[in-house]
Amino acid sequence: MTSDMDIRGTASSDAGNRAIGLAGVLGRQQPALGAFSVAGFPDERAGVDVLVAYARSGANLLEVGAPAADPWLDGPAIAAAHRRARRAKHGMEVTLATVRQVSAITGKPVVVMSYWATVLAYGPQRTTHDLAASGAAGCLIPDVPPEDVPAWATAAARAGISAPLLAGREASAAELTATCRAATGFVYAPAVAGQRTGYSDGLDLEALSSFVASIRHAAPTTPVMTGIGVSTPALAASVVRRPGVAGVVIGSPLIRAFIDGGLSKAAGLVAEFAASIAAPR
User: Fold this and answer.
1) What is the tally of helices (H) and strands (E) in the chain?
2) Which of 55, 57, 58, 82 gives 20 to 30 Å between its CA and that of 277?
3) In a domain, 143, yes or no
4) Counting beta carbons within 10 angstroms of the beta carbon of residue 84, is it exposed (0 to 12), middle (13 to 18) or buried (19 or more)?
5) Can you give the CATH number for the domain in which 185 is found?
6) Residue 19, Cβ neighbours under 10 Å: how many?
7) Domain total in the chain
8) Is 206 a catalytic residue?
């Protein structure tokens, strides 16, 4: 198992490395692997160590969940992580501290995943400013109301961070086009329709390919990341070989692995996912 001393002992040398930008990670020939965890889970200190270990196990994009009272998109595993962080009264301040440390130690792009209610409570302008100051590469919000998307994207751009958006599988053609054209950094495309994170009953890869093609038609130059339902390394390998998919974000399988076997097991699973998608597209 990677110890706290192992993880933090080389922080100064890692921090000296040049950070790899989000565009650089998603623009490579190699598919990107994003690893997700909730800030403050299982506690504030260990939450940083988890993400650093994921980076050192092969993740080249780190996604930090801002603890939320109503994580409606998340299934049981991630929702439980949100509840644990919230019980410890962790919120945006812990999220910012996590981003600051993980970004500095790993030199890899860190994207915050937050619900709109959390952003509103903290203040959209303040959110973008403080995330940028903490070293975040972007902030993915899956439920920005359509009428608020332009102002949110503008605030993110002014702060110097990306504003990825979730493309709904059930959205109308007009809604999908508007979302994809407004998103910056990447478009997040659920691998399955109508499910929460943690879904593991298989994927319709042809339907996913068709959906990604629609996204690419609307926003040809914006990378597409996918997740929700990508529950095994074998599925990840299949997904990243679909045309137009820049990479996958893994969350629930890692939370479950951490709960079952600690950091060693979760980091080992990250390494398995990284190996599974290693072949160039």
Assistant:
1) 13, 8
2) 82
3) yes
4) middle
5) 3.20.20.70
6) 16
7) 1
8) no
Residues 46-75: what's their mean pLDDT?
96
Residue from 161, 98, 96 nearest 130 by CA: 96
Among 196, 219, 218, 191, smallest CA distance to 206 is for: 191
The tokens describing 46, both together, are: 């260990």
Instruction: Count CB neighbours of 121 within 10 A.
Output: 13
The answer to whether position 86 is within a domain reads: yes
Give 28's pLDDT tier (boundaries 50, 70, 90): confident
Catalytic residue among 4, 14, 44, 63: 63
What's the one-letter identity of residue 166?
L
Q: The pTM is what?
A: 0.91
- 201 band by pLDDT with thresholds 50, 70 and 90: confident
Q: What are the C-alpha distances in Å from 15 to residues 40, 53, 122, 133, 242?
A: 21, 15, 28, 16, 35
Provide the residue range defining the domain that includes 195. Answer: 4-276
Selecting among 74, 147, 204, 272, the annotated active-site residue is 74
> Would residue 281 count as lying in a domain?
no
49 is known as an active-site residue: no
Q: Where are the alpha helices (DSSP H) in 61-198?
A: 76-87, 92-106, 116-122, 124-134, 149-159, 173-182
Q: Which residues contact 281 (CB under 8 A, 6 or more apart)?
A: 29, 30, 31, 240, 241
In this structure, the chain runs to a length of: 281
Q: How far apart are CA 227 and CA 249, in angstroms?
A: 5
Q: What are phi and psi of 96, to 5 degrees?
A: -65, -40
